[in-house]
Known about the structure:
The protein has helices at 14-18, 22-39, 43-56. By secondary structure, the protein is an all-alpha fold.
Amino acid sequence: MTPLDRTRTGTESSATRSYPWLPVLTTLATLATVLVLALTGNGTAAAAVAAAGATAGGVQVTVHVRR
């Protein structure tokens, strides 16, 4: 009889390990885009990208205090 437990064994995939960095990379890409648009004189487009980035979410910082 085959087992019903389909829990994966072994190490995590690379996609699972890189997921925590996804919001950070998205935020950095948004900031870089806003900076480039602002420096090239596209203030309206920069404001639109900044608003879309703020609506999409922000960076969550968690601090663990060890004593």
